[in-house]
Structure formats: C-alpha cells, structure tokens
TrEMBL record:
Pfam families noted in UniProt: YicC-like_C, YicC-like_N
This protein's record includes keyword Nuclease: yes
UniProt protein name: YicC protein
Family: Belongs to the YicC/YloC family.
Domain named Endoribonuclease YicC-like C-terminal: residues: 176-291
UniProt lineage: Bacteria, Pseudomonadati, Bacteroidota, Bacteroidia, Bacteroidales
InterPro entries per the UniProt record, alphabetical: YicC-like_C, YicC-like_N, YicC/YloC-like
Organism: Bacteroides graminisolvens DSM 19988 = JCM 15093
Cofactor(s), names only, from the UniProt record: a divalent metal cation
GO MF term list: hydrolase activity; RNA endonuclease activity
Source superkingdom: Bacteria
Amino acid sequence: MIQSMTGYGKATAELPDKKINVEIKSLNSKALDLSVRIAPLYREKEMELRNEITKILERGKVDFSLWIEKKECTEGATPINQTLVESYYNQINQISKSVGIPLPTDWFQTLLRMPDVMSKTEVQELTDEEWALARQVIEEAIGHLIDFRKQEGAALEKKFREKIQNLHSLLDSVEPFEKERVDKIKERISDALEKTISVDYDKNRLEQELIYYIEKLDINEEKQRLNNHLKYFVTTLESASGQGKKLGFIAQEMGREINTLGSKSNHAEMQKIVVQMKDELEQIKEQVLNVL
C-alpha cells in the first residue's frame, strides 16, 4: 500500500504540574526537510529526536513541535518570593537608618515593585521518567501522522487505478482507427496520382513506397510499451512503501509513448484520444508528487 507524504498528528500527556504537547505535520518534498521546535527542557534530546523522525518518515517537508503548558498552583496566581521580600525589607530599613531617608508609608506597594519579587527562580532538570513519558507522546503523534498518510495513500491509490483504467480504455479505443487510417492514406495518395494524368508511375514501386511510409506510422510498438508501463505502474502500487519516485519515472516513460502516438497518429480521431490520454496522465503526474 502506498502512503501520501501529507499527514498530521498530535498527542498530549498530563503531569501534575504541566502538560506535554506534541504536534507533527508533513507535506510533499523530494527529500526529508525537517524543522524542529522543541521546549528548552528537552533540547538535549533534539538529535535523538531528529534521527528517530528521519528513520520513520523518510521523505517530506516535516514540521515537528514539542511544547509544555505549565499548571500554576493556587489557581494560577503568580507566586511571591517571600525570602526576597524579607531581604528587600531588611535592606530598606538599614539604608533608611544609615542615610536618614524616611521609610515608605506603603510597604507592600514598595516591596512588590522590587525586581523578581513576583516570580520564582527554579532550576529544571529532565528526569528519565518525564522523558519516557515524552517519548510515548512523540511516538503517539508520529503514529497518528502515519495513519493519516495511509488514509491519504489509499485515496491516491484508488485515483491512480481509476486513471490507469481510463488510459487502458483510451488505448483500446485507438485500434478501430488504425486500419481506417491506413486505407485513407492509400486512397489519398492514389487519388492524387490519378488526377495527375500525364505522370506515368510504377505501381509496384508505389506499393513499396506506401508500405515504407505506413511502417513509419505504425504504432504497435508504442501501444505495447505503453500497455507494459501501465501494468508496471499498477504492480509498483502494490509493492512495498517508498514507491513515489519510481512511480514518477514510470509516468515519464508513459508520457514518452503517448507523445510518440500523437506524432504518428496522423488521424483526427486518434489525435483527440491522445489529448485525452495526456490529460489523464497529467493528473497522475500531479498526484505522484504526493506519494512517499
């Protein structure tokens, strides 16, 4: 089954004091183009994360984000640093006595405006337990993205099979016009020679020239090769993952055969069929760009 390069995944986990969020999304790209945004606490694990994502996702323009939502205690109130408040209080008292400056009339207003009073300073370290939980969240988000890719891939495969069947039908519809085309060429040349009464010609030589001319317009080889390419495209669809580039190459070969059919057709109805084939193939080429 094929996979699309388009995908999205998100997962979260709750801790007593925080919420871990992981979001990952991908679009089509010729190679892996990975962008990582990660919370400072997990920065030391960035290379490990990159290697893991590269190994699993293979191709695509991938945006990965890991961030933390902190839960504040006391219903979200900003904590007051009591130790720092006491220190500021003692310093202000000492300066007032030493310099003779009057003490503030509103102590609370003064102290609460002092630097860092309304914040707490804490050193955070990543524990093995938290990283194990974060890894689970990351793997879950990547799993969701892969599931999304598979769903998109199934839709693409259905579309490809429909387009390949259309090309088969169009190729079969060429056959009735082939004999008609040869007869018309013979008739046109014979009529032109009959109108030229004064010209004497060798009918055997004319027949040889007609055969040579018609052989140059023969499209049996192109039809056979195109038919083989169509079958190979379907076989590749059913093979292991990572067929995107291969399908692109097959589509290019199909285009060459269709172009040759158009240049050799020399028939109005066949030209119309070739235009329809080109339209179907163009839709295949556009969608192949999304295949992993």
